User: Which sequence fits this backbone?
C-alpha cells in the first residue's frame, strides 16, 4: 500500500565542472563569513588549482565576489537577478505570500511556503515571520532535508516515489528526538488520511511544526505550507484549527495554479 508506481528516471550524464561550480555556490551560501581558497578546496575535496579555476570563472560572471586584500570569497551580486527572477516568475510564492502573512498575524507563527523538487531537499520560497522567539533559522532560499519534520511526513504520504527510496533517506535524517521508523510510517499514514501533519518536538525541542501539502491536478505533492511555533503556543486545539485553516489556503492555491481542462 505504500509503493506508488515509479516512473523511469532518465539517465543524466554528470558534468563535473558544473557540479563543482554549484557546490562552490552552495558552500558560500551556507557561510555568512567569506571563505578562502584553502577552506573552499578542503570543504569540497577539490584540488586547490581546480577550485581556483572555478572561482575565477564564477567571479567573471559576478556570481562570486573576491576581496582584493584578504583573497576571500563570498557570493556576488550576480546572484541577485537570478534569485529575483525565480521568485518573480513563479506563481506559488506570489500567490501564497499574503496568505502566509495572514496566518502568521492570526496565530503568531512563522509561516513558510516550501517547494519540494525531489526527495533530498525542501526549499523555502516564501516566508512570513512572527515576533515569537522561535529557534529556527530560516530565510527564503534555505534548504532542509526533504523528509524531515511535518513537511517530510506530507511528502512521504503524497509522493509517487518508491518507498525504498523514501526509507533510505529517512534513516539518514538528524532529528532532536527522532521517531522510530515504524512510528514514523504510521504518522505518514495519518498525514495521508487527515491531509496534514504535526511535529511536536521531534525535529526541534520545544517547537511545534504544522504542515499541509499543496497538490497538483493529479494529486501529487509539489509544495507544502508550514507553520512554526513554540509548543506551549500551539496546543492541540490551536494546532488543529491552524491545520484546518492551512488546508483551506492550500486548496485555494491549488485551485489558482492548476490549469482548467
Assistant:
Amino acid at each position: 500500500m505504500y509503493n506508488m508506481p515509479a516512473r523511469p528516471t532518465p539517465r543524466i550524464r554528470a558534468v563535473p565542472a558544473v557540479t563543482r561550480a554549484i557546490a562552490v555556490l552552495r558552500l558560500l551560501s551556507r557561510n555568512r563569513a567569506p571563505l578562502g581558497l584553502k577552506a573552499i578546496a578542503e570543504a569540497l575535496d577539490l584540488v586547490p588549482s581546480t577550485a581556483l579555476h572555478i572561482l575565477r570563472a564564477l567571479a567573471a560572471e559576478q556570481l562570486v565576489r573576491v576581496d582584493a586584500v584578504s583573497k576571500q570569497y563570498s557570493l556576488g551580486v550576480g546572484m541577485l537577478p537570478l534569485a529575483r527572477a525565480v521568485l518573480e516568475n513563479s506563481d506559488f510564492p506570489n500567490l501564497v505570500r499574503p496568505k502566509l502573512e495572514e496566518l502568521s498575524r492570526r496565530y503568531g507563527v512563522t509561516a513558510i511556503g516550501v517547494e519540494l523538487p525531489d526527495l533530498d531537499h525542501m526549499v523555502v520560497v516564501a516566508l512570513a515571520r512572527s515576533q515569537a522567539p522561535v529557534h529556527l533559522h530560516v530565510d527564503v532560499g534555505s534548504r532542509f532535508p526533504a523528509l524531515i519534520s511535518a513537511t517530510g511526513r506530507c511528502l512521504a504520504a503524497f509522493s509517487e516515489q518508491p518507498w525504498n527510496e523514501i526509507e533510505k533517506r529517512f534513516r539518514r535524517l538528524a532529528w532532536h528526538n527522532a521517531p522510530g521508523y515504524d512510528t514514523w510510517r504510521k504518522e505518514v499514514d495519518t498525514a495521508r488520511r487527515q491531509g496534514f501533519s504535526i511535529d511536536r518536538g521531534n525535529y526541534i525541542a520545544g517547537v511545534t511544526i504544522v504542515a499541509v501539502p499543496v497538490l497538483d491536478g493529479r494529486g501529487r505533492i509539489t509544495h507544502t505550507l508550514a507553520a512554526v511555533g513554540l509548543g506551549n503556543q500551539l496546543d492541540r486545539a490551536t494546532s488543529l484549527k491552524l491545520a484546518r485553516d492551512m488546508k483551506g489556503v492550500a486548496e485555494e492555491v491549488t485551485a489558482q495554479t492548476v490549469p482548467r481542462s
User: Anything to note?
Assistant: The longest helix spans residues 236-257. The two ends are 30 Å apart (CA to CA).
